[in-house]
Structures are given as C-alpha cells and as structure tokens.
Write a structure and sequence with these properties.
The complex is a heterodimer.
Chain A: E1 4-5, E2 10-14, E3 19-25, E4 32-38, E5 45-51, E6 56-59, E7 62-67, E8 72-77, E9 86-93, E10 102-103, E11 107-112
Parallel strand pairs in A: 2-11
Antiparallel strand pairs in A: 1-3, 3-8, 4-5, 4-9, 6-7, 7-8, 9-10, 9-11
Chain B: E1 5-7, E2 10-13, E3 19-24, E4 31-37, E5 44-50, E6 53-56, E7 65-68, E8 75-79, E9 88-95, E10 104-105, E11 109-113
Parallel strand pairs in B: 2-11
Antiparallel strand pairs in B: 1-3, 3-8, 4-5, 4-9, 5-6, 7-8, 9-10, 9-11
The chains are: A mainly beta, B mainly beta.
C-alpha cells in the first residue's frame, strides 16, 4: 500500500504556463514533506520542502501548498520552463523517524517550448 | 567534486555472485542513507547511518544485504548471493545531521543481475 501517492504518472504543459503536481498521503504521522526532481541517469535533487506547521512555502518559481485536513500537497511551478522537464517525486517523513523518507512513484513533467 | 560519489556507476553480475557498492558522502555529513529504486518506482529506504553506527536498518530486505560505515565517512553496501530481483539503482544520500530535511543524493549505482 502506497503511503505517498502521485496519481498522475505524467504531465505536459506549455512553456510559460503553470505546472501543478499533486501528491496525497495516508499516514497522519508524516510531518515533513519534500519535493525532489530527477533527471535521467542522475540522483534526485532536492527542490523544496514544507513542515506540517505551515500551509505554504515559496522559493522563486516553486511553491508548495499543504492541506493537512485533506492529506494533500501540491507543487506549483510558474512560469514553467523547458529545463523543468524531469520526474518529480513527492516524499514524506515523520521528522522524528530518522528522516526515513517515504516516496511516491513520481510524475514525469514535460514542458514544451 | 563536492557531491556524493558512488561507485561503480554500473555493475552487471551473475545470479549468485557477491557485490559491493561504495558511497563517499559529502565531507562533514554525519548522516548517510541507502535507498533502492526499481524501474517505475520511487526510492525505497534501506538503511540509515548516523556516524559509524547503523541507526535504522529496517529497510534491508533480507540478510543477504549488509552495509558498513567503519570510519563514519565512506559506506559500502554488500549484497551476497545476488538474485535477479536485486536489479535496481542503489542510491546513496547524505545530510549534515539527522535533523536536516535535505538529503543530497549521488547519481546511483545501477545493478543488473543476469
């Protein structure tokens, strides 16, 4: 059973538009959430995170929103750029649990010029 | 370079053989993690080291898997009697401390068991 779910395996958007990637989780013990980006043949790279005490965190073009009651978070990228094309992983952990991250299956984003 | 370094980048072996995968974390990072990523899946936690000791090895799938970090820096993941199902990308990550949320990943070691 997937504790972290990314229900869209792929997403395609036009350059300059907004990309919205969604993630749902089932474990109410999770209190820290992260988004990682992965290019082919590379390891995941950290993008942005959010603690459960917040509902929004913004870093440049990237914003993560957390809705704890719905156990849902989303990553917004605006404006999207072709270089953003990658697989995006949502990950979650119980901050007291050694940062053992539980990952979703990823969403492959394609930003078309 | 200053990032997490993993060797080999690719390893092809035969069923039943022994394999070692090495991870050199970012200098000064006390926390080290091994994850495994199979095709079409997200990374799956294997083991976490804080310093030299394995603080959490609950993700190791069975006793054929073992990892060490004798001096609190470089770590080696050891797989005995490899099986075809062990084929995956093995990712190593490090962080400054247990409290740091950001893990820095290496490029992974792709293991193929024939």
């Amino acid at each position: 059973d997937q504790q972290v779910k990314q229900n869209s395996p792929s997403l395609s958007v036009q350059e300059g538009r907004i990309s919205i990637l969604n993630c749902d989780y089932t474990n109410s013990m999770f209190d820290y959430f992260l988004w990682y980006k992965k290019y082919p043949a590379e390891g995941p790279t950290f993008l942005i995170s959010i603690s459960s005490i917040k509902d929004k965190n913004e870093d440049g073009r990237f914003t993560v929103f957390l809705n704890k009651s719905a156990k849902h978070l989303s990553l917004h990228i605006v404006p999207s750029q072709p270089g953003d094309s990658a697989v995006y992983f949502c990950a979650a952990c119980d901050a007291g649990n050694n940062r053992k991250l539980i990952w979703g299956l990823g969403t492959s984003l394609a930003v078309n010029p | 370079g200053a990032g997490v370094s993993q060797t080999p980048s690719n390893k092809v072996t035969e069923k039943g053989k022994y394999v070692e995968l090495r991870c050199d974390p970012i200098s000064g990072h006390t926390a080290l993690y091994w994850y495994r990523q199979s095709l079409g899946q997200g990374p799956e936690f294997l083991i976490y080291f804080q310093g030299t000791g394995a603080a959490d090895d609950s993700g190791l799938p069975n006793d054929r898997f073992f990892a060490v970090r004798p001096e609190g820096s470089v770590s080696t993941l050891k797989i005995q009697r490899t099986e075809r199902g062990d084929s995956a990308v093995y990712l190593c990550a490090s962080s400054l401390s247990r409290g740091s949320g950001e893990l820095f990943f290496g490029e992974g070691s792709r293991l193929t068991v024939l």
